[in-house]
DNA sequence: ACCCTTTATCGTAAAAATACGATAAAGGGT
DNA sequence: ACCCTTTATCGTATTTTTACGATAAAGGGT
């Protein structure tokens, strides 16, 4: 099996989500009415440079976007990749379900 | 912010999914009518011990389960954590949507 | 009882992720 | 023009992940 690009894509997204600090950051970004700013740092008990690094990971995975606004940078969530992620998981689930179905059909109790 | 257990949980699941080989393994498990066996190895171009290790990661995250069947071990997908994962992502999405809504309401163009 | 297959685990090396402080670049305010 | 705030990036140490071969344990077949 030569790694499916879909697998790479799904892995890229999940890997980016695969750290509690990054999940917390995302949750924080949603909960702010003003979906912005690097004062994320003030609420997450990590050094500023570390937070910046986590933001970069999320950014490179496409899960968030940056809008430079003067000396401050505002981050906001990108909906699309989340939908894509859900779709990827759904596909695994539905594949599983149809396979299970088939199996039951061919092996009636 | 003291790491929310929900964040830990979501991170645990996504981290387990966060490797192309593991996504491929999961996909393989779904596509097998007989959702079983460690002949996963034969189709994934990784050493047997490496595959076993990846299976262990998936196992420990609860994404799959093992059924010992004689000398062979059969693995199958657990639906529940996938649903949980989807729910976690959905929550982030819906939080984001409601926040965006609120913002629009208070700042009419 | 013997061997052979299957597969988890151990030991280990190499690569990647994580965290930090320090520094630099970029803008705002006065 | 100056300084001060904000924040990305650099350098680096530590930990974790990833991959492999070798070994061991467990069962099936004859």
TrEMBL record, chains A, B:
<dbReference type="InterPro" id="IPR011991">
    <property type="entry name" value="ArsR-like_HTH"/>
</dbReference>
<dbReference type="InterPro" id="IPR051081">
    <property type="entry name" value="HTH_MetalResp_TranReg"/>
</dbReference>
<protein>
    <submittedName>
        <fullName>Metalloregulator ArsR/SmtB family transcription factor</fullName>
    </submittedName>
</protein>
<dbReference type="Pfam" id="PF12840">
    <property type="entry name" value="HTH_20"/>
</dbReference>
<dbReference type="InterPro" id="IPR001845">
    <property type="entry name" value="HTH_ArsR_DNA-bd_dom"/>
</dbReference>
<dbReference type="InterPro" id="IPR036388">
    <property type="entry name" value="WH-like_DNA-bd_sf"/>
</dbReference>
<keyword id="KW-0805">Transcription regulation</keyword>
<feature type="domain" description="HTH arsR-type">
    <location>
        <begin position="2"/>
        <end position="97"/>
    </location>
</feature>
<dbReference type="InterPro" id="IPR036390">
    <property type="entry name" value="WH_DNA-bd_sf"/>
</dbReference>
<keyword id="KW-0804">Transcription</keyword>
<keyword id="KW-0238">DNA-binding</keyword>
């Amino acid at each position: 099996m030569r790694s499916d690009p879909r697998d790479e894509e799904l892995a890229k997204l999940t890997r980016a989500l695969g750290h509690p600090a990054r999940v917390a950051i995302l949750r924080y970004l949603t909960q702010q009415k003003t979906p912005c700013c690097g004062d994320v740092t003030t609420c997450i008990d990590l050094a500023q440079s570390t937070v910046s690094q986590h933001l970069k990971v999320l950014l490179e995975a496409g899960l968030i976007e940056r809008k430079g606004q003067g000396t401050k940078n505002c981050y906001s969530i990108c909906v699309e990749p989340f939908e894509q992620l859900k779709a990827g998981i759904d596909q695994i689930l539905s594949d599983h379900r149809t396979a299970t179905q088939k199996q039951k059909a061919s092996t009636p109790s």
